[in-house]
Design goal:
metal ion binding, hydrolase, about 50% helix, Metal_Hydrolase, single chain, adenosine deaminase, TIM Barrel, alpha/beta, about 15% strand
Length: about 350
């Protein structure tokens, strides 16, 4: 059995459609009313969109119901599903905590409540019956003002028991007009010893090389090998890992076929750039992390050797994985330590 590390999962897009539908029916019938039944809702929720901008609008649907009161409900089900159905040993959950605060408050009051949201998520993630190592990545947002984004960075630095890094989300085509702000925020984050990733080079409009020197990982980054392969040597030199989320590019219309990712993987491996495979929005996609690996393999996008390398990369580049080796090495140590009487033999296997 393989154990997996998930480096790129949005809290807003992590709710699988049936759980979200059940919540709507029980608690928000106004949100369920436009749909005749569950199949119609699932079709709406999971269908491909015309663009990344249209796709991101779905996050607002979930963000509106992920409140202080309901976050434990959704997170428990996320952890349970990740452990039981995905074999996750490690998961980083990313989201913009400010967008889970009450919009009835002033900006200052919402910033104060942001830290409370982070604590709620952190405590709700500690589910003893489903032991997964978890941590949070706090997302700045392209549509939020500088003061709020800076506060998010500071909260991340103040809460290392719950937070392992920061990100910038909201559509990478929106960064241009505020690039000086975002460079300043990332420089500030690094000065606070925060680990960093960023939604970057996901779409053709998301090429912002100014941010690359401040990053430890790159959220998506597929346009680097596809459109800007000259950047790959520098990415490799900085030991930056690309967080590749295969299903996302089909759902957003960024790619027309999963086979187009073969160029991404081949060029990255040839250049010595590490790649981790992720789900991004497992709920919106109705997909689980092992299936992402399986699809890439069965569609001849990656080889078995590349698959194993991506599995190892995910643990090696995880911001909060507490060990210097992956779980496979730990299990091998256990098997080597086990008394001879407990070790399987050819004879016992045959019976």
């Amino acid at each position: 059995m393989s154990l997996y590390a998930e480096l790129h999962r949005h809290l807003g897009g992590s709710v699988v459609p049936r759980i979200l539908w059940r919540y709507f029916k029980r608690n928000r019938p106004d949100l369920a009313k436009p749909f005749a039944d569950y199949p119609q809702f699932e079709e709406f929720y999971c269908r491909p969109r015309e663009s990344l901008a249209e796709y991101l609008e779905l996050h607002t649907l979930v963000e509106s119901v992920q409140t202080r009161e309901t976050l434990p409900y959704f997170i428990y089900r996320l952890i349970r599903g990740a452990y039981v159905f995905e074999n996750l040993a490690y998961m980083e959950m990313r989201y913009t905590p400010y967008l889970r605060t009450s919009d009835q408050l002033s900006q200052t009051e919402r910033i104060d409540q942001t830290a409370e949201i982070v604590e709620i998520v952190g405590q709700a993630s500690q589910v003893k019956e489903y032991p997964i190592v978890t941590s949070q990545i706090l997302c700045m947002h392209a549509r939020l003002p500088y003061e709020v984004n800076r506060a998010i960075v500071e909260i991340a630095a103040q809460m290392p028991e719950y937070v392992c890094g920061i990100d910038l989300a909201g559509g990478d085509d929106l960064y241009c007009d505020r690039m000086d702000e975002f460079v300043d925020l990332y420089a500030y984050a690094r000065s606070l010893n925060l680990k960093t990733t960023c939604h970057l080079y996901e779409t053709e409009g998301g090429a912002h090389p100014e941010l690359l020197p401040y990053l430890m990982r790159i959220g998506h980054g597929i346009q680097i090998p596809l459109q800007h392969p000259e950047l790959l040597p520098a990415v490799a030199q900085r030991r930056q890992c690309l967080e590749i989320c295969p299903t996302t590019y089909l759902k957003t219309g960024t790619l027309q076929s999963i086979q187009q990712l073969q160029v991404v993987f081949d060029r990255c491996f040839d250049a010595g750039v590490d790649v981790a495979i992720c789900t991004d929005n497992a709920g919106l996609h109705n997909v689980r992390l092992p299936f992402e690996y399986e699809t890439l393999l069965t569609q001849d996008v990656i080889s078995f050797d590349q698959l194993r390398a991506c599995q190892e990369n995910a643990f090696r580049h995880a911001f909060a994985w507490p060990l210097n080796q992956g779980p496979a090495a730990i299990l091998n140590d256990v098997l080597n330590w086990a008394p001879a009487a407990l070790k399987p033999t050819r004879a016992t296997v045959a019976t």
